[in-house]
Amino acid sequence: MDEDHIAEMFEGLGPVTIRRMFGGKGVYHAGLIVAVDFRDEILLKADATSAPLFAEAGARQWTYEGQTGRPVLMPYWSIPDEALDDPEALAHWVRLAFEAALRAGAAKPPRRRKAPSAL
User: What is the pTM of this model?
Assistant: First the structure.
């Protein structure tokens, strides 16, 4: 998907940056990943709090077949159909994705810095 189109989709959230990753693109807001563009489909980040809302709205969770042959569930969901042509509804869903990203960031322990090596 074209980067201008992605930025337009996320206008309701604010400015985003887009970075290439694993065959797709990551969409970031305020330094947090909020979505991925994979095979020309935007998938929004969700978590235990917001995933039920995505499911209820008819969105699909991103899965792939793992090495054991079992599906691996990813924390990204399709945009509900109702929001595809409604900028206000889309803004609601992208805000939910950002809130999930904030919760995920808060749940991570702080990264430890390496001590400078002695000469």
Answer: 0.85
